[in-house]
Design goal:
mainly alpha, 16 helices, 72% helix, globular
Length: 363
């Protein structure tokens, strides 16, 4: 029986394979560090300690992971519909615009009104920006990868123009808005837990992390436990079969991308409203692209996305601490190490699968 007709046990496909990919990435990264004359074990230990060895490190790890949960879910939803959404970066950027307009011009409202309005505005702007390439693919046959990449650059140009010429705080040179009013800022987790008598370290971690967890559960329910989600997965598996079953592929494509864009806008909730409290140039910081690797490593399942996002958050935070503990390892090398993990867990995620099929495959 051919390998393509065999299936892997769930624990191999969702646990062992990602673990092997991560181990291979760390092995290659260790060889790179060794080639510079440094001890790879010492470097990995420093990264783990920096990311998970203190309350502050854990807070920063979860703060970075929050962005990647949103973008990982966004990529996963689109992927289930057979779409490769490369535009989460631009969709998050436009989501930040919608959120900022609410926080700047409706800050006279109480927080319990500003918060949901800002979330809705961010989701609406992100969804609208994702609807453009979705409509082009569904109605005109334009490839989603090409259009989303191009729209990323349009988003960069548009947002930079707005920040320099329209939204900039009067009297300053830095292209950013004024700071949001206190009632337009998300409470930090330190403040939230402190009110419950639980003391944690001060970090940028805020309640957007809780919103990301709620989104994770909602995506799981929507994709695997609703008729709509079943239709999305059928379209992703076979558009012809979807048509035969009475499902309109074009409609599902637009709906899935709209949801994907709304999820991408969660980055704005964490970064703009939760941490910076103002709109900055390039606040998405590449999380839209990292979300692709997060989704691939997490097998496009919300639980896998959560685990993968925490891993990448630990890489971000651990890499920052490594640059302090071992100054001889340059920041460029740290970026290269993170890239190796993304390469092996994302781009080469299925490289070892044929070997595992031969070992554990079943009909």
């Amino acid at each position: 029986m051919s390998g393509t007709s065999l299936k892997l046990p769930w624990w191999v496909d969702y646990a062992l394979l990602p673990l092997l990919n991560l181990s291979l990435a760390l092995l290659v990264a260790g060889l790179v560090i060794l080639s510079t004359g440094e001890d790879p074990i010492e470097a990995v230990t420093a990264m783990v300690q920096g990311a998970l060895g203190s309350g502050e490190g854990i807070g920063y790890t979860l703060y970075y992971a929050t962005d990647m949960i949103f973008t990982g879910l966004a990529v996963a939803v689109a992927f289930h519909c057979g779409l490769f959404n490369i535009g989460a970066e631009g969709q998050a950027y436009l989501g930040g615009l919608g959120l900022t307009l609410v926080c700047l011009y409706l800050d006279w409202l109480p927080f319990w009104l500003v918060f949901p309005l800002a979330m809705l505005a961010a989701a609406a702007f992100g969804a609208a920006y994702a609807a453009l390439p979705a409509w082009l693919q569904a109605k005109r046959g334009s490839h989603i990868v090409i259009t989303t990449i191009m729209l990323n650059f349009i988003a960069y140009a548009l947002m930079e123009w707005l920040l320099v010429n329209v939204l900039i705080k009067p009297g300053q040179m830095s292209p950013e808005t004024r700071a949001f009013a206190p009632n337009a800022q998300l409470p930090s987790m330190q403040r939230l837990l402190g009110g419950l008598g639980i003391e944690i370290a001060q970090t940028p971690l805020n309640i957007a992390f809780l919103v990301a967890l709620v989104c994770m559960v909602l995506v799981w329910v929507l994709i695997w436990h609703t008729r709509w989600g079943y239709g999305v997965r059928v379209v992703g598996a076979s558009p012809r079969a979807a048509v035969y079953a009475g499902i309109a592929p074009g409609r599902r494509i637009i709906q899935a991308m709209v949801l994907s864009g709304a999820l991408s806008a969660g980055v704005a909730l964490n970064e703009v409203m939760g941490a910076q409290h103002k709109l900055l140039v390039n606040f998405p910081g590449g999380y839209g692209f990292t979300g692709i690797a997060v989704a691939l490593m997490g097998r496009n399942h919300p639980a896998g996305v959560l685990i993968s996002a925490v891993l990448f958050g630990a890489l971000y935070q651990g890499g920052a601490e490594l640059s302090f503990d071992m100054p001889t390892i340059s920041s460029y090398l740290i970026v290269a190490l993170q890239g190796l993990v993304i390469l092996f867990t994302g781009g080469l995620a299925l490289m070892l699968r044929p070997a595992l099929v031969r070992l554990f495959g079943r009909a």
